[in-house]
Amino acid sequence: MDGKIIHDGVHGSMKITGLILDLVKTPEFQRLRNIKQLGLAYLVYPGANHSRFEHSLGAWHLARRLSQEVGLEENESMLLQVGALLHDIGHGPFSHTFETIYRHYVKERDHMRLGREMILGKTNITESENGGRIPEIIESYGYDFSPGDVADLILGKHEKGYLGSMLHGDVDVDQLDYLVRDAHYTGVAHGIIDLERLMKVLRVYKNELVVDEKGVEAVEGMMVARSLMYSRVYFHHTVKIAEGMLTRALEFALEEGHLWDFWRMTDCRVLVELEDLEGLPSEMVKRIKYRELYKAAVLAGADELTGEEKRELLIAYRNVERRREIERNLADAVGAREGEVILEFSTADLMLSEPRLKAAEINVLLGNGELKPLRKVTPLANALKRRQTPRWAILIASPERYARKLREVWRRVLFR
What we know:
This protein is α+β, with helices and mostly antiparallel strands. It has a domain at 7-201: Hypothetical protein af1432. Helix content is 53%, strand content 10%. The chain contains 21 helices and nine strands. It has helices at residues 18-24, 27-30, 52-70, 74-86, 99-105, 111-119, 134-140, 147-154, 161-168, 173-186, 195-201, 216-234, 237-255, 267-276, 280-289, 307-318, 320-334, 346-353, 374-377, 379-386, 403-414; strands spanning 4-8, 12-16, 202-205, 208-212, 295-300, 342-345, 363-365, 371-373, 394-398. A four-stranded mixed sheet has the order 3-4-7-8. A three-stranded antiparallel sheet has the order 5-9-6, sandwiched between helices. Strand 1 and strand 2 form a beta hairpin. Helix 1 (18-24) packs parallel to helix 4 and helix 3 (52-70) runs antiparallel to helix 4 (74-86). The longest helix is centred in the N-terminal third of the chain and has 19 residues, at 52-70. The radius of gyration is 22 Å and the shape is globular. The N and C termini lie far apart (68 Å).
């Protein structure tokens, strides 16, 4: 069968053919070459320049392998493969960086729902005339599933629970690829997992994806790796400062009536458009470009906050206007301009970007045929759910000249 060989830095040579090849050729999928997988993490880890394109191919590759390992029939296998390939098709520039902005400025259009619209042919996110053909391509191959089935699978709504779990569960092909890939490109060994073992110990049993009892240690290793990668890479305080600065630049632009179609753009396009504007957006982008980042004035752990303070921050972080008001109050208190003080609250950010982090619900298939939740088989699962990831709960950053004063007044301003 004719096809193309893609040489991947993580999984080696992968041959793509048929439906998968035609979907890879679409403008929507090719656009992912220009969306960085880890947002602005390259400012801390210089090798982290890999893209959503690579990750999506990697997730497809693992979906194909897992399909073979658990013995899925052809239609289910192809449905899972197409879902894995297209699961990130709706990502906007810099991946998760602008996730909070979607809810406030782009009504009902986070990257998951946007991806669904693209798979159903309701949105052409690209400037290419060849865009919008994804449903037509899927239907042309005559498999026993529709574009709607693919969209439902990506949103975790498929009637067959094991298929949904393979793509969006406690142990899924999405996580398995990004942990291995992100560890490889950042050079952080914490993300290394026993991928080969995990592929061999997953099973389909009574309509759900389970892990064989002898594979518990491999799942524990994956959970530890995931937790440490969030602490060390994804929520590294400098990465979050840079992403916070870029988010504020875009917010200011949107408030002035610019860049309302930012969700269609690629990384470079957003930076160019923001830099061309006057004032704060341009200043922020130039700072990011030359790594003249704000400094962490406050890094406070969860144990430094009361339950009521955490609830207040969670409400504020979910409400863009309230969060911006707090930032303005902090700036006023230290004599800074609006936009020169940014507040990040990791708990809220994690709930938006990765709800799976606190999950440990996959069942373990014991030798006697009994199913038992992972958390009841290993105490490590519960310990990881309780672990504060990352170590900081509140991050307040600003130009260095305001840092000392912010440390003196932040609590009074936030919780007055």
